[in-house]
Amino acid sequence: MDENFERFxxxxxxxxMRRFVIPWMQExxxxxxxxxxxxxxxxxxGTMNIQKPFDNEVTLPYGNGAAALEAGSxxxxxxxxxxxxxxxxxxxxxxxx
Length: 97
Prior knowledge:
The chain is of the alpha+beta class. It has a domain at 31-91: CATH 2.40.50.140. It has one helix at 3-28; strands spanning 31-42, 47-51, 57-61, 74-80, 86-91. Strands 3-2-1-4-5 form a five-stranded antiparallel beta sheet, with no helix packed on it. A hairpin with a 4-residue loop joins β1 and β2. It is globular and about 45 Å long.
């Protein structure tokens, strides 16, 4: 595939997500779920720093199903609306739900 076309398609996809999809999801309180990697755990505060591939690190609270997770493991995150309103609910397989 032509490199310029591939770059154009990537940029178009990013623009579409930023301009239309993400604002719509924030407006309508859409529920999303995704897998991420646990970067660090703060047991005293009840939070985890997690990171999706190629994304920034985010600090989120976690539920009982994710209490045993350690740095480097995969986790399952549920989000309502924007990305800051999420919770780590389980390991990456979802078996602890």
